[in-house]
Amino acid sequence: xxxxxxxxxxxxxxxxxxxxxILGAALFVLxxxxxxxxxxxxxxxxxxxxxxxxxxxxxxxxxxxxxxxxQLHSLVIEDVQEEILAREAMAMGLDGDDTIIRRRLAQxxxxxxxxxxxxxxxxxxxxxxxxxxxxxxxxRPARLDFRHVYFxxxxxxxxxxxxxxxxxxxxxxxxxxxDPFFLPGQYRQATEVRIGTDFGRGFWQALxxxxxxxxxxPHTSAFxxxxxxxxxxxxxxxxxxxxxxxxxIADWQRETQTGETxxxxxxxxxxxxxxxxxxxxxx
Amino acid sequence: MRLKTHLxxxxxxxxxxxxxxxxxxxxxxxxxxxxxxxxxxAEPAPAQTRTPDYSETRNAYFGDLHVHTKCSFDAFIFNVRxxxxxxxxxxxxxxxxxxxxxxMRLSGEPLDFVAVTDHAEYLGVLPSxxxxxxxxxxxxYAADMFSSDRNKISAAFARVAQSLAEGDKRAELSDAxxxxxxxxxxxxxxxxxxxxxxxxxxxxxxxxxxxxGRNLHRNVIFSGDVVPDAPFTAFDSQNxxxxxxxxxxxxxxxxxxxxIPHNSNGSNGTMFETVNWADLPLDASYAELxxxxxxxxxxxxxxxTSETHPLLSPNDEWxxxxxxxxxxxxxxxxxxxxxxxxxxxxxxxxxxxxxxxFNPYKFGFVGSTDTHNAAGAYDxxxxxxxxxxxxxxxxxxxxxxxxxxxxxxxxxxxSNSRFAQWGASGLTGVWAEENTREAIYAAFRRKExxxxxxxxxxxxxFAGADYPDDLLRQxxxxxxxxxxxxxxxxxxxxxxxxxxxxxVWAVRDANEGWLQRAQVVKxxxxxxxxxxxVYDVACSDGLTPDPETRRCPDNGATVNVETCEVSKxxxxxxxxxxxxxxxxxxxxxxxxYVRVLQNPSCRWSTWDAIRSDAxxxxxLPLTIQERAWSSPIWxxxxx
Lengths: 283, 639
Prior knowledge:
The structure holds two protein chains of two kinds. Chain A has 13 helices and four strands. Chain A is of the alpha+beta class. Chain A has a four-stranded antiparallel sheet with strand order 2-1-4-3. In chain A, helix 7 (124-133) crosses helix 12. In chain B, the strands form six sheets. In chain B, strands 1, 4, 5, 6, 7, 11, 12, 15, 17, 18, 22, 25 and 26 form a 13-stranded mixed sheet that branches. The longest helix of chain B is centred in the N-terminal third of the chain and has 18 residues, at 176-193. By secondary structure, chain B is α+β, with helices and mostly antiparallel strands. Chains A and B meet through helix 4, helix 6, strand 2, helix 10 and helix 12 of A and strand 1, helix 3, strand 2, helix 5 and strand 21 of B.
């Protein structure tokens, strides 16, 4: 069996020796090319009083008591060391090939783009157009009035058989011999969501084909079998903009913000020429 | 110059509307104080028209009573920018964005009810600090408060957490106008989304008291649209007794509300003490004050489950479930478990009642998430934890090692190992006639509530002196159970020679998981000391509890932890029993509650590892047993 390419790649990525070799090579190249630049960088670290206070306060929150002089001293030393290591690492370009740092930087910028994309209220025309495009989402959902008799899958060997027998014996009337149901035996104006929550997804669909005004079944739910009398159906109905205005505004803002962020992202992307080696993609 | 003034004006409008998703109507009265006292308060309520859902035997509705948005100081620091409107939209099924860039969406049906409960302390202050031109934005360290740098996030959080631990309001972080506007936004968002019969919202907030870091947080939930001008915060007093007195006062003024303590597991034993704030022994007036205002407790949430701890319940094999043993928002460990867990508190309550005749700990159970992303993570396989950027990836949550590392050479840093203890939990279930504020709030008051760790399992629980023998087969089971007994949350006097009949009825989530067993947890007092015992009362797969061990035999359910696939054809859709207490004593002071266990399934951390193509963290459980708890029924309690 041959190893699929992505597996091979992910194994390579985890190979410590490879990491070592790549790191070594990179360091060699970088330390040569960056030597000049390095000499010009500031070599001063200024530990401000605010920084020290922040370190002390973070310690206190974590440990429940303020650091003593010695602890504070080592906190500052660690902090300075971290700062120096970070600066040196960046100067060597170690951040460049680090997935985590790259992802964090990308995340930070995306976040700034999003924050700057908060839209104001839409104009009336914009709002109407948005509502028209999403009319179905604001519609009052279809509803169903029905009664049901339940045959439990937990307490019966053959709930479907028992349901059928009860159905035949009832001669079109209320079937007898069902099990008590833990929720109502009669539903009024039940939506697909309500039925999905109470009987399991799929039961709504099963009831779509049930005839109106007569008992039918058995129909299978998450709990067993049901004989059902669909009493009436209310089709889905549009809700005028005036009744859902605030909801539409909120949705418009949410969508506009996302759209605006994407637009800014596209703007950035369009400044770049992207050369794609597509052999791997083509496979 | 005119242009500049105009710009400043629009900035301040933005700041005022900072916590709302909906821009304010441009108009002269935008900045007017909230007129929150609806005129309806003074008039008698109009006769309620029933919604189509209405059922005398009550429906189960599921909701989250603990949701934070960007109006909470910490959520904003965690880079969360979702508004209360976003929180309600999410609960109704809409997708919203996580600050790390991915989309969060419920994997199940929409929720039935939600309360947005932002921290009342510094409410809306951070969004205003981040808005150029506002007075708050000129605080010297303002920019550090909304960095996306994780270290700066920690430092900013620490700064505010410190002020909360001290109960000391920082003047530079306070702006009454901003806080009032944010409270008004909270109210208006709840009002906008409340839709009787379909989706219920509650106006609420979190009272964030944590003296010396010990968590005494409460969520305050208002029954209706009549609410005070400003919330009572931990800066008014860190003492919960002061909160309850304030709630009493509100009630006298026609404003009804209750408080729900949460994360007692992070209180280091101070949530359910045997002394009051002043260190004096509890008395009857304390018990009445507390129970009048705190009929419910949050038993499970993302930051762990507070039912019980293995050290408190050594004979309960399921006690070590999603235990979180850190202080909240810190890396120091909890050392005191007594007084920090719910079952232990019920026991303490019985001991008080036995000796002193009053019971300060007689509460029902709810579950919620405490999400700070405006979006609860209820499902193990659809999990994003709860505090924005800091726990946004599997690695940050301690579920997978960094790229190129393995569990042999990587240890999760302490600050992240807290996140590894967190979980995809929970939900509140209520038994209410219909999905309206009135009906659901009445269920809170009756304690006819149950809690789940996320799945929408339903639990019925009744006690009756003498139910008919064929009750479980009767079509009128529920009518009879209500008419001739009490439901969960209720009280019953039982002095007869025979144990009452306990009806235990649990059904699976209609869309996921199968049930393994239903249990009754009993607490009672013997020689002044509370005892507890767990009885399996209904088993799946045709099994029956062993009368000696009181345990169901193993039903053989398995999980493939490589794929998270669960065994087919094991487990029950429904568990149903009439149970009689074999250890019943006439007149015994006791409580009983139901715990329902699902078959095992993958924990979120296992899902994270599989999806990251990594080994799961060997220090974490691979699987969990999702569960539900009914509120207790008390026998012979006068409290």
